[in-house]
Write a structure and sequence with these properties.
single chain; 78 residues; mainly alpha; 58% helix; globular
Length: 78
Amino acid sequence: MPYGLPKEIGGDSKTNEEWMKKCVSRVMGRKNARTGGKTDKKTAIMICKKTLMKSKGNAALASLLIFELERKGRFSDE
């Protein structure tokens, strides 16, 4: 499954994809502190994506934040 990882951290490479699969399955098995239930897949992907980006460097994290803000319409170059 492609996770849409930025090219600054290697994109959806085989290594990144394997890491994400393992992380998502681990996070989904844990209790969500906010809701009390199990963490859903969308939230698990977000957590793992941010964790991977943070572990690969601040430039990649900045790229993710800009991407997310642009996607939500909260940031643009205009």
